[in-house]
Amino acid sequence: SMTGEQEDLSDAMDDMLLMISMAIIFVYLLLVPQFKSFIHPITIMGVIPLVMIGVAPALGLTGNYVSMPVLLGLILLAGTVVNNAILLLDYTLARREEGDTAEEAVAASVKARFRPIMMTALSDIAGMLPLAMQLALGSERFAPLGIVVVGGMAAATFLTTIMVPLTYVTFENLKNRLGVSDSEA
């Protein structure tokens, strides 16, 4: 059996995965009253897996493996990507209250919130590049965290601006077809 550091890492990763699962559930439960809907939080939480589209190639290209710094980077990414999705969806809902159609609201949302989302993404990437490139002495231990953030933010930012509006419009069209009102969703 594995002992020593490997056993400690295995135990820590099991605990971390449990905590990440619980965090996702709690974030969903916090978003339900915020948006007064069970569907809109799904739209927001659906962007979390998008970070893996950038993380996996970034780790593969640099020859790094899943470790505790990688998991910490995933937590950081999940928070930032959820924040970006909330920005888009909140503005979309505000435009819907003003009378816009779903398509008009998401188009206005992406147009209005693109700059703040890009500023967040670029500042995260610029802040993590020195760590990812191991420019400081001793930074090789946490370089995977920087690599994860750079790769994940690059992909997830682009995909979030596509997937959140697409998912929102899809759910709205589905609600209209089923005849479900906003208060029931």
The overall strand count is 0
Q: What gross morphology would you assign?
A: globular
Strand content: under 5%
CA-based gyration radius: 19 Å
Secondary-structure-based class equals mainly alpha
Helix content: over 70%
> Main sheet?
none
Mean pLDDT: 89
**How far is the N terminus from the C terminus?**
50 Å
Low-confidence stretches: none
H/E order of the elements? Answer: HHHHHH
Describe this structure in words.
By secondary structure, the chain is mostly helical. The chain has helices spanning 5-35, 40-45, 51-62, 68-97, 102-132, 143-178. The longest helix has 36 residues, at 143-178. It is globular.
List keywords for this structure.
6 helices; globular; 185 residues
Summary, kept brief:
By secondary structure, this protein is mainly α. It has helices at residues 5-35, 40-45, 51-62, 68-97, 102-132, 143-178.
List the helices and strands and how they pair.
Layout: H1 5-35, H2 40-45, H3 51-62, H4 68-97, H5 102-132, H6 143-178
